[in-house]
Specification:
By secondary structure, this protein is α+β, with helices and mostly antiparallel strands. Strand 15, helix 9 and strand 16 form a beta-alpha-beta unit. The chain contains 14 helices and 23 strands. Homodimer.
Length: 468
Amino acid sequence: MARVLTPRAEDFPRWYQDLIAKAKLADNGPVRGTMVIRPAGYAIWERMQAEMDARIKAAGAENAYFPLFIPESYLKREAQHVEGFSPELAVVTHGGGKPLAEPIVVRPTSETVIGEFMAKWIDSYRDLPLLLNQWANVVRWELRPRIFLRTSEFLWQEGHTAHATREDARAYARRILHEAYEDLMVNVIGIPVVVGLKTARERFAGATATYTCEGMMGDGKALQLGTSHELGQNFAKAFDISYSSKEGGREHAWTTSWGTSTRMLGGLIMAHGDDNGLRVPPRLAPIQAYVMVVKDGDGVGEAAAKLRDGLRDAGVRVALDDRTDTPFGRRAVDAELRGYPVRVEVGPRDLAAGNAVVVRRTDGSKSPTPVADVVGAVLAALETDQQVLHDQALANRESRTVEVATLAEAIEAAANGWARVPWSAVGVSGEAEANGQGVTVRCLLRADGSVPDSEDEPDLVAILARAY
């Protein structure tokens, strides 16, 4: 196949940009830091969105929608929150040709505006828990934009909940972390993630605890794919989110927030892509099987359409490419770039022998297959290759993760991958030193790999890496 992309080993960032452009996933918007998500990219986002939405609803949350514009005074009510977001805010000072009485912030996240309405809607313990989610866009003024990874405007879901007790809030934040986020990332997107606790330095502004899902990309760097936060009573006190308890007293609620975004698309590209383009895990792929007419005539078009229908009837998301006025080689390159899990190529010579060719995107293998067996072969390939992509990503992570004993060794190891080091060997001062060299503590784990409640627990393990 002709080289269309810069090889990953030669220049990984250039490969990433090449792939996004050549696969027609997205483009830069007219305002610096914004992006246009093209149909091929948006189709993948829609699949992510549908899978995530189902998991969020299974956890009991309901979708709502809150305003894009937030009074600046709302953000100022929670001191840590406004301090954390101030450098990233886009502020509207004029509307309708006149100065506004109060500046309006374009939402960077919605804790404050949703907190205002939680306070209005919650009166009694019977109103709890209140479990809300919204699908929206947010704006964070980004100095170093990169499509899907860091853009000034991006798409996401943000969940916000209120609970009667700290224990209930913590349990729910972790339920979302594992049952929605980790499950989607591992079992659908095929990215094995390390799930852990963020340090105080990396914690969400205004949170009491932040839990994260960290994935390793193809170049050994880390990408934060989703976070879930315990907010304690910080926002409840700032916005007076309170309720009458069973005992008749007035108590402040305990709140959480959690989010994932179009950054997952960047993770998909960098975790699974190869030098020929994107590789989309079958469970996620908008098009799982791509039936291609190599050359028309001799009943090829009819046979291809029949295969498409048979695959669709078997529950496969399928598309037919019968554009024989476009050279087949070019169409095959485009299919590789888009990462369709399986191609079914139908041409006169193969069809004369009673076959079609099944091509698997994971390894490029081509198998002449009797037409009657194509549907079964495609279903088997889809099942197998979902696991193949996960296992390859896991092997990459394991081969590039090293156990070290000191901060210096961890910083050195982070040049090529991840380091696992005792948190006691890093600490707050060591974390600052690592940050000065472009290395961050991605998360903290217990020795058995489970998620700690606090960074003060004994014998914790820190994951250090360079990150996007």
